[in-house]
Each structure stands twice: as C-alpha cells, then as structure tokens.
C-alpha cells in the first residue's frame, strides 16, 4: 500500500464570479521513503497541491489516504494531530513564529504534543547543531538571515521525525550555494531517516537530481 | 455567480405582505384602543426604545393579553377578537414577505469537471441543526430553572421531610445560594454536554432552546407579580421563591437577574464544551496554550502591573507625571553613559543602545495595559461602592436593631395581659437571648410652645436592657432607673429662683409612690425618656416637664371625647445616632403606659436573638412554641422590610450600574484581542500547520483575554481593598448634619468582594469568546498567503 495516495482531487478558486480550476482530478501514489520533486510553471498550482497534500487546504472533491486511512474523513482534532505527527512543512518563506527563539521554534511541534520540555529542547538543540546553527539558538527569527531562518524552519519540520516532509521551494529565496546546502540536507534526511519528501522547485537541475520527478501542468500531475 | 449568495426579491409579494402586516398592526392598535390601554402600551414601548430594561416591560404588556384571554371568559378584556385577528394578520404578512425573498436558482453553467467525484467528506457530513443539541440546551436551561425553584422550596421548607420533625430547613438566603449554585452547575453541564456532543457552538439551537424553553418560567413569574389571578393560584406554591425575591423590593428584577445568570452559565458551558471537546476529543490541558499566550501578550510583567496599580490608586495624572520624570531622567543618564561607553568602545555603545531599544512599547502592549486598567477600575469601583453601601447598611441595621428589637411577639388583636406566662414559654426557645414587654402608641408631646408627634413606648426598665441598647444610649445627666423612682428626678430650678409660669394642672395626679407634693413644679411626676433630637425640638432638659396627649384611651369630657393628657418629667435623654429614632421616640414605664392608654397589658413582647441573621427562623420557632394563632411573631426583616429591601435594591442597582464599567472594559478587551488576532493571522496559520487544533487556537486567545481579565481583576481587588482600608483607617469625613454619621462607613464583605472579581473574570472570558472563535476560523492557507 502506498504511503500517501491521492485520488481524483479537485480544487478551484473563485474570484469575481470566475472559477479558476487549479487541480483537475489529480491522482497520485507516493511510496514510503521516496524523494520526489515537483516542477511546474509559476501559478500552475504546485503550492495548492502541496497544501492539499498536507491537509492545510480543503479540496472541493477527492480523497487523500495515508497508509490507507481516509484523512479528510477524520475530525478536526485528528487532522491537526495527523499534521503534527506525520507531516513536516517547509514553506517558500520560513514562517517562523516571531515571538519565540530559534530553539523554541524548532521545539514547537513537540511542545504542541506536550512532550517533555527538557527532552524536546535537547533534540531541538541537536538538530540546530546539525543544520549549522549551534550559535544562533537564542535568536529570534527577526535576528536571523533568510538562509538561517530557512534552515531553522527545516529543523522545525524534522524535529518530530515525520513520515512525510513537504517542502515548497525551500531554496527559492536563497543563493545557489546555500540552496544546494539545504537540498543536501533534504537528501540526507531522506536517506538517513527514511523520511518521504516531496520538494517543489523551479530549479530543473535540482529536480533532475531527485529519484522521482513530477510535473504539474493544466491541473494534472504527470511523471516527468 | 458561484460563490456569492444570490437573493431574488419578488417585490409584489413583499409589498402585499407588508400591507397585510400593516393591517394586522392597525387591528392590534384598534384592540389596544378598545381596551383603553394606549397609555400603558405606549409607556412600555417608549421605555423599551429608550433602554433595554424597558424591553421587559414591553414583554409584560404583550404577555398580559394572551394570558388574560386564556383566563375564564368573565375576565376577558374587550377587543380580544381584534387582538387575534390583528396578530394573525401580522404573522401572515410576515410569512408573505418571507416567501417573497428567494435564493437565486442554481447557475445555468454546465456541470464542472469535478461532477461525480467524491465530495470532500467533512462537507458531506455537514448538518446545521441537531434536535439533541436543542434538547440539551433548552432542556438544560429549563431544568436549571426548575432545579432552582424546587431545590429552593425543598431546602427552605425543612428538607421536605415531615418525619424529621420541626427541622424548619435552612435560612432562605442560604437555601437560595445553594440552589443557585446547583442550578448554575446544571446549566453549565447541559451547555457543556450539548456543545461537546455537537462539536460546535450551535447558536441556532441555543437561541431556540433559551427562547422557547428558558423564557417561559421568568415570564410566568413576572406575570404572576402582575396578575392577581395567577398569584392566587400559583403564589402559594412558589412562596419560598417569591419571599426571597420580595426581599429585593422589586421581585421581577430578581427573577430576570437569576435568569440571565443561568443563561450566562449555559453560554459558558457551551463555550467550554466546544473548546474542550468541539474539535474531537476532550482536552482540558492548558500548558502549551498559556506558553504561547504569554508570549503574545505579556500582562504579568512588573512594569505593567505596577503602573496600572499606581493609576488605580492615585488617579491618572500623578503617576503619569512621576513616570515622565523617571523616564526623562533615565534616558538622560543612559545617553550619557552610552556616550562615554562609545568613546572607549563603539561596539559596547551599540549593544547598550540596542538593549535600550528593546524596551520600547508596542501599541498592543498599550492596548493591553488600557484593558487591564479598565477592568481594574471597574472592579475597584464595584468593591469600594459596594463596601461603602454595606457599611451604610450595617450602620443602619445596627442602629435600627439597637432601637428596635429583633423579634416582636404580639396578638393579631388585643393586648397581652398574660405576658408573664408567654415570656416563660418564649424563654425556652433556643436562640432567644432577652425579652421585654412593651407598648407603643403614637402621641403628641408638648413642652411650653413646642409640639411634636412621636411614638411613646412603655417599657420595663428591668428587662429592657436585655433587648434594646437604651441603657448604653443614655446621655449623662439622666438615668433609666429614675423611671421607677420618679421622686429622684430633680426638678429643674430656673436660674433666678423664679417660679416658671406653669398653669396648675387640674387633673388629679395619681402618684405611684404615694407621696404628696408641695408645689406644682416640684410635684412627683412619672418619668419620661426622650431622644436627643426630640429634646432639642421641645427645648427641654432633664428635670423639665412635658405633657403627653394621647388620642388613645380618650376620656369623656363635658364636650364629648377629649384626648387624655398627662404630665411627665424628663428623666433622661438618649442618643442612638439615628435621627429618626432620636426625634420620634420617647419611653415611659410600662405601667404608666397601660394607664395612659387604658389597656390591661403590653401590646407585645420584644425579643433579642443571639444571631440577628437567624431571626426569621427563631421567630418561627417562637410562634410554634406559642401555638400560633392568636399569637404571631415577626422578625426585624419583616417589620422593617421596606427600608432594608430599598437598601438591597439600591445596592443591586448600584452593582449593575458599576458593572457597566466592567462591560465597557470588556469591550476594550474584545478590541484588544481582535487586534491581536488580526496581528497574528500568520502565526495562527503557522500554528495550525504545525498541528494545533482549532480548539487549541481558541484556548490560546481565550487565555490571552483571560490574562487581561485576571490581571485587571486582581489589580482592582488590590486597589479596591487598599481604598477600603484607607477609608476605614483614615476615614473620609461626612457632613454630620446631612448624614448623621461622622465618617464614611465601610464594611468589606468577602463574598461580595470576591463576586466582583469573579464577575470581572467571567465577563472578560465571555468577551474573549468571539475573538477567539474568530482566530480559530483563520484558514491555514489564508494566513500563510497573508504576507
Ligand atoms: N486565494 C486565491 N484566490 C484566487 N486565486 C488563487 C488563490 N490562491 C491561488 N490562486 C491562483 O491559483 C493558481 C495556483 O496558485 P499556486 O500558489 O498553487 O501556484 P504555484 O504553482 O505555487 O506558483 P509559484 O510557483 O509561483 O509559487 C494561481 O494562478 C493563483 O493565481
Ligand atoms: Mg507556490
């Protein structure tokens, strides 16, 4: 059974009485441990697709199954919990919480679960060391550079060792070298921790370096 | 076309509906004309447009008609047919209007490509109305009301168990408190269960439930106050309920207050149920939410708390001046320090400057401080004013109870010549501390040219001290015991030894002590004790003569009945500190009074009880001991009911008015939390993306509002108590000629003080519900896009 399988998903936006069909019956299976890249023109609906995959957005129709369970049939708390435990997000911009330090931001998903503070902070510290930010733990997001913040966001996405990592152009705003570093990290966690990852990118070279490549065109996802 | 809701209006239907409704209104107006009730209806409607309180009266006015038409035909008011026809036309009109408004037909576009795909499952499960939830809410409020009424009746009428003998139950106030708490819990629990089962707030069900199942009871009680027929048939059964409400003077206010409290508890229960379980599972843990909330609004920091406290204690201007001075000095000192630092090491200066910058305040922080201050002011005002009013009440009660007895035993008609036997019986009742027989009757007193109408009271000096404070209240110079030994009262000598020009009394004095007297002014007259004000009005002092004229026990004279007149000598002057008593009371010996009024015994026995608040129960026990009719026994609450219920009503109204401050502060909290929600949309979305459930978001923002409420409540409590202690220890002088009390009295009642804080916290909790729900409805995607 596929880890994540989405079936016949539709999503449209409505603006000024006009319907914009973004996803038109997308069906797709993603196996455990896969590293998948998703490319497509700007405005093709990549972010929308990723949001639906991560239960952040509500599709008009269709099914999302995780290990065979119908995710959208769960209730609000269960979905929140599902999101918390099984999905890690990295967005186009970092979306760290400005009131909290880097360390607290990384620990946040575990704190939401009400895990033990000291343990959580220990593993958060370890992760921050690993992404090379051992000296920035007490910085607030406003006191970090864009690349640093993005690495903190990656650490946050990984702190609970989720089954799925969804990354939406994580390197979009970064210089090529830093971006390559982040992609390197993504590959590492995919290899070492067995985390399934879907990475949206505009960088054809990077995309081609991934084992599986998807393309979003005209509301349909195809293998590229 | 698609997403927007389209409405089509059929104007022909709307206009004809409006016409029909208008006809109905005219018919109703006709009915009112026929019943000659325009003045009343206009009055109540006018009131209701002015204020919300009047709405109640409008309800009454409308409710009166159907109830009266349901009564037997004999009492049917005129114009009933018009009322029915008018109401029907009015309703039909509205139905026609409603049918003129239609949802637009579905758009004519072809089926979308998604037709036939599985609908998003949670959308497929949508249901907007649950009968079970309606049952839980409506049944809950009704149950709470019934529990309140029944439990109150049950508890205060002796636990209902006749077998337990004359246990006579709890004091009504205690019974009320207990049943109110139970009923509130019932309302809360029902709201909680309903919301947690439905997993949504379910406003429609709540509204319908409260209106159809909750409202009838208070409406019925209100009508009962106004319709004698209803009062006759129901009043007896509900006597425990009405007794308590009557203590307020305006029972209707009491009913509606209690009703609103129950509705409030229901709403709280609904909200709590939704938060706790609405998102799928019961989760009452708060640690994480508080952690986030505290970062969003830092209420509990010393600078904010101390600043607000200073404002509450000393007003706005002085702390502001002090703050300004401190900040100016600090800034100057800091700048010189940083400059000298920078001359040595620019980096050190930069870091110091940075730290200085971090301390600057954000607008949200200012809003937070304002809200905390608002709640604080409300709580403080509530505590101070209620404490002062309690002080007045206590003072009044003390004075009334000093001059009057706690319980009076009398006969429905006639005197109590058998009082000695009764007193022995009464002495057996536990809780009775002292008793004294007495007579009181209105009389006129004369001294020279001055006349005053007063209450003359015959007392037994031996026992009166065990009931009244008369002995302690005697002014120096007089003596209570001289009532029994009138020969000891020294007649006042005028300064120049000249005889005062008194006319010789024609009536034969009947000296109790058979000692003949030499001159009129030195004659042994029975003693009388006057109040200080009365003495001042009559311009007499101890030893002076006064004449008492009593309409009772009138004598047959040559020209028909003439009032009896007797001379007395002032044996003493008392000062109770209460103008009413000091100006309107005089005391003489019981035997003298019997003679004067021509009765064969005292008119009542006055009792003092150990616990003033227990007087009602003891009074009932006494009445039972004496075997009821023809004896009756009334406690002070019953005797002085008007003044105390006026006081209580005044206090209640003050409380309500001052609570408006808290409500305004709650408005501030709503604004603050909404601002926070708007400011934190992105953070809310991120938190949701990280896996915080809707319930969790609600909790976070409720916690933010509650922090403000709790901080404000505690600061208000602190400053209110501080003010009360200030008034208590230092005192605020009052003009004695106006208030008859030297300084502002204060009495801090713990329950009432705690209630002020609890109300503030509850109101802030309520105020934060809406913004918190708003926060939880932020869609993660929306927030993430809001850059
Ligand atoms: N809230 C919205 N209302 C209306 N249209 C929207 C909304 N959000 C997105 N769209 C439209 O939906 C389409 C898909 O948006 P999406 O953000 O998924 O694109 P994308 O593939 O991620 O693009 P990019 O590579 O630039 O990030 C776009 O054409 C956009 O204009
Ligand atoms: Mg995008």
If you had to describe this structure to a student in words, what would you say it looks like?
Chain A is an alpha/beta fold and 224 residues long. Chain A is globular and about 45 Å long. In chain A, 35% of the residues lie in helices and 28% in strands. Chain A has a single domain (32-47, 75-223), classed as P-loop containing nucleotide triphosphate hydrolases (Rossmann fold), CATH 3.40.50. Chain B starts with 6 loop residues before the first strand and ends with a helix. Mean pLDDT of chain B is 77; it is low at 160-167 and 495-519. In chain B, the strands form two sheets. Chain B has a six-stranded mixed beta barrel. At the A-B interface, strand 1, strand 2, strand 4, helix 2 and helix 3 of A face helix 5, helix 13, helix 27, helix 28 and helix 31 of B. Bound molecules: adenosine-5'-triphosphate and magnesium ion.
Can you describe this structure in just a few lines?
Chain A has 224 residues and is of the alpha/beta class.
Would you spell out the secondary-structure blueprint of this structure?
The complex is a heterodimer of chains A (224) and B (787).
Chain A: E1 4-15, E2 18-30, E3 35-39, H1 46-53, E4 61-66, E5 69-70, H2 76-86, E6 87-90, H3 102-112, H4 117-130, H5 146-158, E7 164-168, H6 176-192, E8 196-200, H7 204-208, E9 212-217, E10 220-223
Parallel strand pairs in A: 3-8, 3-9, 6-7, 7-8
Antiparallel strand pairs in A: 1-2, 1-4, 4-5, 9-10
Helix pairs in contact in A: 3-4, 3-5, 5-6
Chain B: E1 7-9, H1 11-34, H2 38-50, H3 53-70, H4 80-99, E2 101-103, H5 121-124, H6 131-156, H7 172-198, H8 203-214, H9 216-226, H10 228-234, H11 239-246, H12 251-277, H13 287-296, H14 302-314, H15 317-344, H16 346-358, H17 363-403, E3 407-411, H18 419-427, E4 432-447, E5 450-459, H19 461-464, H20 470-473, E6 527-531, H21 532-538, E7 545-557, E8 560-574, H22 579-584, E9 585-589, H23 590-597, E10 604-609, H24 615-625, E11 631-635, H25 636-639, H26 641-679, H27 681-689, H28 694-729, H29 736-739, H30 750-776, H31 780-785
Parallel strand pairs in B: 5-9, 6-8
Antiparallel strand pairs in B: 1-2, 3-10, 3-11, 4-5, 4-7, 4-10, 6-9, 7-8
The structure holds adenosine-5'-triphosphate and magnesium ion.
